[in-house]
Amino acid sequence: MDLRISPGTAPLSGTGLARRITAPQEGAAQEVGFSNALKGALQSVSAAQNRSSDLQREVQFENPNVSIEETMVAMQKAQVGFQATLHVRNRMVQAYSDIMNMQV
Prior knowledge:
Layout: H1 15-22, H2 34-60, H3 68-100
Helix pairs in contact: 2-3
């Protein structure tokens, strides 16, 4: 078994591809920041809660295409997302209080 690296192949040649994928596109003006990340996370939690509610409604109407297992998983995902959101909010309020109580 030959374990030598050929001179034409750089050991970390795949890292450039990851940089190109994660870099924002030239045509799209994307602003990356805390507020946008928080807004996206809140929208994701809201979507999970809406999906959970829709699935619960469909189970109550006895829709044969919706399983109880799928509904329970969606409910748990929504609950975990909501709990995480509450923890982030509490940490942000605590950080704000700490900053406001600092003496200058």
